[in-house]
Request: fold
Amino acid sequence: MFSLWTLQILHDCLHGSLLNKRQQKFIFGTVKRRTLQDAILFWGSMPSVFGYYLYLKYGHLTHHKSLGDPKAASLEKLFDSSSKEFEDGDVLFVAHRMKLKGKVGPKFTVGGREITMSISKTGFNSWREDKPLWNAVVFATSFMYERFMLMINDVVVAITGRNYFFPNKPIEFHEECAKYCRCAVLVRGLLWKMAGWKSLLFLYLSETLWSIPPHPACAMFVTNHGSNVDDDSDGGCIPSSSTYAGRWYSLFTLGTNYHCEHHDFPTIPLHRLGELRKIAPEFYKEGSNDNVFRIMKKAFSKPEFYACMDAGIQHM
Reply:
């Protein structure tokens, strides 16, 4: 869980809610707020085997901006884009478990032939409707395999100075990727030397297991951006959802379960998100008795469209 907690703390740093908002300079007035935030985001992402830095830096804020936009949430668009930022960084995760519109990526040219290679899409295409156990195993396999390959890709980027999965992105993106990967690989090498290969195995498992069944945190991870229909109002689709499974679950996930609240108010710090339901209960679901295992079973029985894409088709 410390890996999830690290992600949530760095996530708060990115949104500007980790540090005192009234203070613009830190460390005896020598370091500007933005400089300190960038340093925390960079170095706080280590040690890790694949880390959260590049997603947070280039894909999370745009995720808030583009959530539900089918033009942004496409694997082809994400990998072929010439923009420094990802159009919606969450597409990198949800492609393993949700329906997306648009074509697939990334694409590579080998021997004059264009080849499309997507671990997430290959795994998702193997899902079977109303077979939650099978789908959960497929999801865990594709997700953990992709994370392992990302660890290898970090070494390639560290050596070559280029991330070949994103060929059209500007040089600034590749330079930042190379800088991070070189530092991250160096830290991993030091860990291996001091604590052996088991230290990297520990990091790999700690960064992946909370995302897959039967880990309780998986419930909020796989359902935070589905296509939920609000039966209490006009039947409209809600692209974000929270998991209310009690106070201990909120502590266990460090407030990550309050995902709908976070998208409504992204600069509210993690420890205060739960207060929003008390302040405006009419806008959020009542109760705190969500069954996380029932939630996972439903999510892996019938996949939904990501963030209300084609929600009318989803719920016909």
About this structure: The first strand starts at residue 25 and ends at 26. The radius of gyration is 20 Å.
